Structures are given as structure tokens and as C-alpha cells.
Amino acid sequence: MSGALLDSLKADFDALPSASDGARGDAFASALADGLPTTRAERWKYTSLRALERRSFATSAALLAPVDAAWLADIPAPRIAFVNGRFDASLSDTASLPNGIALHSLAQTIVDGDPRDTAFLARRFDRADETFAKLNAALASDGAVLRVDENCAATTTVHLVFIGAPGDADIAWHTRNLIELRRGASLNVVEHQLAAGDHAHLGNTLTHVHLAIGASLRHARVQHDAARATSIVRTDAVLARDASYRRIDLELGAGLSRHELNVRLEGEGAKLAANGVLLADAKRHIDTRLCIEHIARDTSCDLAWRGLASGRGRAVFHGGITIRAGADGSDARLSNKNLLLSEGAEIDAQPVLEIHADEVKAAHGATVGRLDETALFYLRSRGLPASEARRLLTTAFCRETLSVLDDAALIESLGAHLNSALARIELAP
Amino acid sequence: MTMLKIENLHARVAGKDILKGLTLDVKPGEVHAIMGPNGAGKSTLGYVLAGRDGYDVSEGSATLDGVNLLDLDPEERAALGMFLAFQYPVEIPGVNNTYFLRAALNAQRKRRGEPELDSMQFLKRVREKLQVLHIKDDLLNRAVNEGFSGGEKKRNEIFQLAVLEPRLAILDETDSGLDIDALKLVADGVNAMRSKDRAFLVITHYQRLLDYIKPDVVHVLADGRIVESGGPELALELEAHGYAWLKDRIAPVAAA
After folding, report:
1. Which CATH number fits the domain that encloses residue B74?
2. Where are the domains of chain A?
3. Any idea what the Cα angle at residue A427 is, between residues A425 and A429, rounded to 5°?
4. Distances in Å between the alpha carbon of A19 and those of A254, A413, B82?
5. pTM, whole model, 2 decimals?
6. Structural domain of residue B202, as residue ranges?
7. What residues of B are in contact with residue A378 (Cβ under 8 Å)?
8. How many CB pairs under 8 A join A and B?
9. What is the ipTM, given to two decimal places?
10. Nearest-CA residue of chain A relative to B75?
11. Could you give the number of structural domains in chain B?
């Protein structure tokens, strides 16, 4: 059973030069057979795709206006940019990449033809509810491929920029990214998911993060997409022994946003620290689903997410942590605090901790509350108008997630995104 | 010329009558102490004057420099010169102390039609006040009251008072939870802020604070009314005899 969405993607599939490729064909057939997941699927319980399923997307669209390079002036090089899922050389600048870091588009990597470089595309997806990953496996033809050599301790920040731009039709794109740090390597990455104007495209992104022994990645991601955009993102990360992964995700835009962050702590001593903000104002539906697996001993995760819902917005947060048998000495922490700012808004918060090992430390908690009346009165009693007091408290609530960062330029840039997104919100008393 | 004039004030909280006909006159330059047993309505008086939601005035009036306070929002009262030093200052993680105070001061100035202070002018004022109050400037870069000790929180209230320069400052049990050294520091700060144009309402359960902040007038608040007023010697009397004698004062009125 397939709806208009999947029917419209058949044309995309047929247009692929490698449509005959067995793995892509299998993935597409499997996606068609399963259809989009419904809310009966446990992982999609709070996010309905029925409206999306009925939409159809064109295979290509002509941009209404080219994206001006000046628009990216705030995003320094080295950077690689994609517009509506396609690599854009004029917006990219990789000349300043230091030795030991390779950054290419997936399209180019496929053309270059070294099978070792595209081995990550071979991953199979079998679950009936991972249709978007199957579609990605079938259809993705571009994305960012970023590799860091062994022991290359780069202080550089690499920017990956994904821009949705208005066209003469709504299209769907499927982006596949790889961030691979070899043994002992370290890197900073910032992913920007931005809109160059109002559009209603569907972006389906699958990003693989591979951190080898002792590798260290600091990864920030800002999703500040157009209000009518649909953003489906999945990040699959695997950490080897003593690898360290710190990431922050600001989910500030799109009409429907779903982010699955799956992290496997496979090697002893692997560490994950992840923070995020979900901003579900207006009619936005913002869904983040964490699936963190402690597989090896002495692994740790520290997760702190903040959610905010106003207007008729809905924030959905699922924080799943599994400590597998044998992962003794693991330390898992999850905190999820939410602010409900209006009657018509909704927050669904679900911390889930599954422990199959002994001698672990684990703590998790989720709260949903309103702005603290005592704090509001305190601020107003000093002279701040009620609206300003509300904005100050709301901003502080979200900005706390930035406090784990130590890069001033990054804090500034993420803070600016957060402030501009928060400025949208009506803070009625 | 009266600065704060409260007449026959009745207020209730959560449906319960707390203030039951309170009358009080405070002139510029004066320090009035409000003493009384727990539950007398001392903190309620502070909240009602500052304009906290949920404190409903059913009767009576309160004016500051002739302006009716009771119809105004808390921020409007602040701009008129009302300041309440909280008994339990609120921790506000993520809001920088200096940023907050500058925003508050400029919001007040804007409302009064005065020019806002730029960051240099504001910093200059802050430095002056820190010097007068003998406060270390590490407090400036922290989040509002977050992780502050009890003494630091109370000193931060006095620091805000100094920067905002209110007409009327209400200190709600500023002595509670302070050891003697912290108490002296806070009292020194208050004394440095005394002036002929500014009045203080010092709410306290114990006479101890009044050893360091000398009041002009002492009032005893019991069961929602001022039952006794006098000079500083009244505080000493309360210290010697406690509040038990008040029962005789309350009973006849309650029966009437």
C-alpha cells in the first residue's frame, strides 16, 4: 500500500542512472512494500505522517532565485554547501582544509568510483518502520563525505550547509552524509540546515558518524528550516573504544521535523554528551527520538534536552537509553525539561531507560511545566515589563543547553539562531 | 509630606483575610521597622505593595508620592520607585546578573521618560555601587542568584537596590538566614543607601537587624493590623518580652 508520496518518488527512482543497482532496487521495493509508518508503529506513535503521505513531490524544480553567496557570509570556510539536496560548488569553499581532512560531495565520490569510499552506502535497513532510511538508501545521490586521517587533531571547524530554496515545484531530496574520524583524530563540525526563503520541500537526510578508537568529534547542528518544510533526519553514530562525541541539536524550524539520533557506544570508555532544544511554536510539530545503546563496559552518556511548545505547536521527545548485558560500569544520564506556554500546545516527553547490566549508574527524568510565576514576579518587580520578563525566562531556559559549549564563536552563532527563533513566539500573559 | 500612605488596607490571599485594616504613613528619609510574630501579615504587606498576583486588596488604599499603587502592574510600581528586597531571592539560571539589572534599570528609565544608559554609563554606575557596598565584582558575571549562598543572595538584593535607586525600599526579612558577619555587611549596604529622599520599610521578626539599621519608627504588626507604634525602644521591649502580650491586643478587636 503506497500513497501519493511514494508514487511520486517512483519517478525519482526511475531517473537514477544506477536504478538497476540491486541494493538500491531492493531498498526501494522494500520501502514501497512497507509504506510510510503509521502512528500504530511504536516509534511513530506521536508523529502522524498521513498528511505527508498524501502529498506528491516533483522530481526536479527550477529555483525561483539563485542562492546568493553573500547569504552565507556568516558561515566561514571550510564549508560544503548543498541546495535542495545538490552539491553547490559556488557556495562551497574547501580550499582552506588542513592536511588530513578530506571533504567531498557524495555525487563526486560516486563518480570517482573507489568502492571503499562508498562502502557506507551498502548498509541495509530491515525494520518495517524505517521507510525513510530505505528511501534514502534507494535514492540518495548526494551529500557530504567527510573523513579525518588517523591522529589528525584538527582545531578547524568544518561547516556542512544544507539549504532549502523555493522552486517552481515542491521536491523531495535524499541526502546521505558520512563523518568518519579515524583512530585518534579530532574535529569540530557544524551542520546548518537553513531555508533561503519559504518552501515546502521534503528533505530526507541520513548521516553516519563513525568514530574510531580515541577519536573525538564536536558536532553542532542547527535546524532552522522554512515553516512549511518537512525535515526527516536520522543520525546513526558508532563510537569505538575511548571515542568521545559531543553534539548539540537546535530544532528551531520546519513545519514537521523528525530527528532520530541513534548512538551505539560499542567500545569501552566511549563517551557521548548530547544536548538539544525543541522549539514547537505556531503549528510546528517537532519530534526528536534518541536511541542510545551502551554496548561496551564503562561507557557513558549525558543527555540534556529542552522542549518548548506554544501556540498550537507540539514537541515530542523520546529519550531511549539501553544498557546492554555486559556493559557494566556504564553511566547514563538523561534530563528533559519542557515548557508549555499555551493551552493549545502539546508536549509528549518519554524518558525510557532499559538496563540489562549490573553495576551501572543511571538517572533520568522529564518534566513539563510553565514559566515560574515567582521568577516572573521577581523580574517584573525590578521594572521589566511582563512580556520582556517572559522572553528573558524563555530564552534562558533554552540557552542553558549552550552552557556546555566552550567555543565563543559557536555559542554566539547558535545563540543568534535561538534568539531569532524565539522572537517569533507570541508570549501572551 | 508623606511618601507612602497606606489607609485601612485589607488584603486576602487564597481566600484568607491576611491584612485587616492596616494604616501607615512613611515620610522621605525615614526608616520604619515592621515587626511581628509569624503569620501576622508582614510578608503579605511587602507583596501587596509590590503588586504580586494572587494578593487581592478588598478595601483601603496605598499611594506612593500621591499615586495610587494598587491599580498598577509590578513594573509600573518599580518605575515609580518601589523596590522589594525578597526574603527568598529567586534563582534564575541562564540570566546574567548584569544583563538583567541593566535591562531592568533601562525599562524603568524608559517608562519614566528618562534616557536609557548605554553599557559604559551603566558599568560606571555599577562600579560606584560595588565600591560603596564593598561587594566583589564576581557577582556581576554570574546568573541571577544561581548557586549564591544565603548571604550572597541578600547582598545581591541590596546591590540591585543600590543600582536601581528606588524611592521606597521594602526589606522583607533581609536578616533571615544570615550569620552576624553577613548581617553586618547587608546592614552597612542599607545604611550607605539611606538618604533624605529615600525611605525604608524594614520587615523583620527579630530585633537583631535593628541594632545595625537604626529605625526612626517601629511598628508592631499583628493579625493584619498595626497594633503598636513607637520609637526604637519598642523593638527592645519586644526583644525582652516576646510577642505573647499581643494576644490581649488582638482579642478585643477580633471580638468586636
Report:
1. 3.40.50.300
2. 4-371
3. 165
4. 30, 41, 74
5. 0.88
6. 4-255
7. 86, 89-90, 92
8. 75
9. 0.95
10. A383
11. 1
